[in-house]
Amino acid sequence: MKIARTAFMLLPSKDERLKDKEMAKAKNFSKFQIEQMAELYNSGKTLEHVAMVFQISVPTVRKNLKKSSLEVRAVRSYKHDPSNTPKMVELYNSGMTFEQVGDVFGTSAPHVRYLIRKLVKTRSKGHRAQIKEENN
Predict the structure, then answer these.
(1) Local structure of residue 11 (DSSP, 8 states)
(2) High-pLDDT (> 70) share of the chain, %
(3) Among the listed residues 102, 93, 83, the one whose alpha carbon sits nearest the alpha carbon of residue 122
(4) Residues 6+ apart with CB under 8 A from 41
(5) For residue 120, what is the DSSP state?
């Protein structure tokens, strides 16, 4: 029994646990730190990179950047121009992959796939392998 009491006494009290939890949650940043976040972000770094540097979450970075009156960039940097879709389909039909078409237009392969699938039936993965074999 005595051992159990001593082990229990080593555990932090409920008040201490709540205090630690509040301190971990309420991470207040100085103006200097927020300026550093803004400087990193303005230099072209992503929210994820800034969060990693400061060891905080992306929403916390976003909140602090907004506090400093900095406009946060849109997550998607590529704005689709509808006139590009037929060109994307044409390149895809000529044998290019989604990634290659995405590289041409500065967007991601999943975005190209999404746009092209709305208009045409896409190739199967086996077809892509056949094209590679024919080229060899």
Answers:
(1) S
(2) 67
(3) 93
(4) 47, 50, 61, 65, 70, 72
(5) S
pTM of the prediction? 0.40
Q: pLDDT by residue (tens digit) across 74-93?
A: 665 556 788 888 999 999 99
Domain ranges of the chain: 28-75, 82-130
| Look-up of token digits 């039936």 | 121
Q: Nearest 5 degrees, angle CA 128-CA 134-CA 136?
A: 110
Long-range contacts, stretch 87-92, CB < 8 angstroms, 24+ apart: 88/112, 88/115, 88/116, 89/116, 89/119, 89/120, 92/116, 92/120, 92/122
